[in-house]
């Protein structure tokens, strides 16, 4: 019997699986499309974090998950995504982190959805700054403010 047959599917989608349904689901090998999705997800993770390919035991994975969570909560993930270590000026990186910290405090951000929305807003703000700098450069300005 394959995993995709309706006999093995829960009758009420959205309700928790019974212990028997969970045992049945994990006892069967994944189908070819499921294996491809799992492999694709693993490949993306390896490309994003090459150091994760060295993780071999559960404790290593748990520690890596904690570190990635810390990077996300601290804003490091956002800055890495923006290319801060290579392309973003230190002043802009620091400003983004300060704004992020202030938003977390002021808005009492706690949930993953709130963090995602905040980071999307900060990314949009950063992209706006980049565009404004390009417009300034095209208009003959230097693009940065001298102090």
Layout of strands and helices, then pairs:
Elements: H1 19-27, H2 32-48, H3 58-74, H4 76-82, H5 90-107, H6 112-138
What gap, in angstroms, lies between the N and C termini? Answer: 72 Å
Which band does the percent of strand residues land in?
A: under 5%
How many strand segments?
Answer: 0
Number of domains: 1
Tell me the helix content: 55-70%
User: Structural class, from secondary structure content?
Assistant: mainly alpha
Average pLDDT number:
78
Stretches where pLDDT falls below 50 for ≥5 residues? 1-11
Output the number of helix runs.
Answer: 6
Q: Topology as H/E string?
A: HHHHHH
Structure description:
With 147 residues, the protein is mainly α. The chain has one domain. 65% of the residues lie in helices and 0% in strands. The protein contains six helices and no strands. It has helices at 19-27, 32-48, 58-74, 76-82, 90-107, 112-138. Helix 5 packs antiparallel against helix 6. The longest helix has 27 residues, at 112-138. It is elongated, with a radius of gyration of 22 Å. The model is unreliable at 1-11 (pLDDT under 50).
